[in-house]
Amino acid sequence: MFFPSPSKVWLDGELLPWEKAKVHVMLHGLHYGTSVFEGIRFYRAPEGKAIFRLREHVERFFFSMGVLRMPTKWSKEEIEKAIVEVVRSCPADEGYIRPIAFYGEHLGLLPKGEAHVAIASWAWPAYMGKEEIRLQTVSIRRISPAISVPKAKIGGHYVNSLLASFSVDRSKFDDALMLDTEGYVAEAPVANVFAVKGDEVIAAESDSILPGITRETLLVLAEELGLRAKREKMKREDLFKADEVFICGTAVEVCAVVGIDDRVIGSGKIGSITRQLREAYLKEVRGQGKHREWLTFV
Ligand code: PMP
User: Fold this and answer.
1) Residue 153 CA: which ligand 1 atom is closest?
2) Most buried one in 25, 30, 128, 277, CB count within 10 A?
3) How far is ligand 1, taken at its centre, from the CA of residue 271, in Å?
C-alpha cells in the first residue's frame, strides 16, 4: 500500500481502522473540490513523538473551513485532541498528518449540511527525497485573489498546483516555479520560496501564495541566527541574482534550489545559510531547539 505505517482514521468523531474509513462517490467535496485540508508533521523528540506547530495548522484549517462556509460541530480544541489521538495510533515515530474537511452527499453547487472531518497519519519521508533541487518556471500561473482565496488550503486549488507540476520537464527539473498573475515569484506547487542575499533572508511575498507555517518558522529562525529576515515581492531575475534560493513547507521541509531554468543559482550547491536554516529547523521539529511552544507532545 502507498501509505506505510498507517494510523487509525478519525472520521466524524470515531476512530476507525484505516481500511474502514470509506466515503460515498456522490460527495460534494469530490465533485466540486470543496474540501479543505492541512499537512502537518510529527517527529521523534527526546520525550517521544511531538507534533510541530499543531495550533497554527488547526487555526489555518478552521480559516479554510470558514472560507468554504463549512459548518462544523467540532471546536479547535477537539480537533487538536483528535489529531493527537490519531498520531498516538500511528505505528511510526515520525510521519505526516492529514486532516481534511469536506462537504458530504449532496449535489447542486450550493452545499448542504455539516462538513465531514477526517484525520489520518502515516510515515512519509521528506517530499523531494534530496536536499538540492532544480526548478523550472512554468507557464501556468498561481491562482490570484481575483480567482479564489489563495490563503485558504482548499482541495480544488491543487488542480492549479498539479497542472504546474505536470508541465515540468522531469528529465532536467525536480519541480515547478510558479509566478503570480502579475509576474512576481509566487511559490512552488506545495512549498514557499526564499532567496538569500548577503545576510538577508527574503521570503517571496505575493497575494497569491499560501503563506506557509514553515515560512513563518524560518523567518523567526533566520533572525535568531543573526540574519535579517524579510518578506518582499521578487521577480524571477531576483532569484537568478540571489546567493542562495530554497523552498520550504511541511512536506518538503527545507530544500536548496541550485538551478532555475537555464541558470545556476549561487555556487550550484546548497549554500551555507540554507544549510544553517535547514539544520536549525530540523533541530526545532525534533525538540532540540529552544521553541518548546511549537511542539505538542503525544
Ligand atoms: N504553498 C502551498 C500551495 C502548499 O500546499 C504548502 C504546503 N501546505 C505550502 C505553501 C507550505 O505551507 P506549510 O509550510 O504551512 O506547510
Assistant:
1) 5
2) 277
3) 22
